[in-house]
Amino acid sequence: MPRRERRAQLLESALGVFVASGYHAAAMDDIAERAGVSKPVLYQHFPGKMDLYLALLDTSCDQVIDNCRDALASTQDNKQRVAATMDVFYDYVANDNGAFRLVFESDLTNEVAVRQMVDRVTNECAAMIAEVIREDTGLPDEASRLLAVSLVGMAQVSARFWLNDTAGIDRSDAAALIAGLAWRGIRGYPKADEH
Q1: d(Cα 99, Cα 68) in Å, to the nearest integer?
Q2: DSSP assignment of 172-187, as one string?
Q3: Regions in the chain scoring below 70 on pLDDT
């Protein structure tokens, strides 16, 4: 199997093990077995469990950030941008692979490298949203960033709560509900050209 395909296979197998067991209980033996390879093959690609976890986390973080970027670029209508961005977070946590647990529920957030990657999701998504807020409202950078971080936090926390809640609200209905709340708040800041 070509190196790139083998790496992807190993990452997919590791994701299943890390999501099911958490970092500390996951064993390289389990990951190798799940991938159908020997441990030496696994170690050829990833020198240790932390290296494997960080590679997987990096991929998962990139996915959220890229999807957020795409959502913001998908329209010039800010109400639709808010809805599309909320959908990013709800789609991410609803994905059957459970990758969101590595990003939003990691049992390694005390590790500097892990914390930096996890924080990257909030920081980069918020930076993109803050840019839109600043351009549209003329608010200072600090105010735009605080509003953006609040929107990202609302999306992350509500999506995770929705997933674990037993109320049975449909994913799209839940995302629309929170997007409506967010839009009602953020639209109160008039566009700069309306001043």
Answers
A1: 16
A2: HHHHHHHHHHHHHHHT
A3: 166-167, 192-195
User: Are residues 15 and 56 in contact, defined by beta-carbon separation less than 8 angstroms?
Assistant: yes
Tokens of 157: 């926390």
Give the distance from CA 100 to its chain's centroid: 6
Q: What is the pTM of this model?
A: 0.85
Instruction: Give the pLDDT confidence of 120-130 residue by residue, as tens digits.
Output: 999 999 999 99
Q: Are 86 and 175 in contact (CB under 8 A)?
A: yes
For residue 138, the SS3 value is coil
* Cβ atoms of residues 102 and 19 within 8 Å: yes
For CA atoms 87, 89, 93, 96, the dihedral sign is: positive
Distances (CA, A) of 33 to 7, 11, 42, 151: 15, 13, 10, 41
Rounded to whole angstroms, the Cα distance separating 99 from 20 reads 10
Identify the three-state secondary structure at position 82: helix
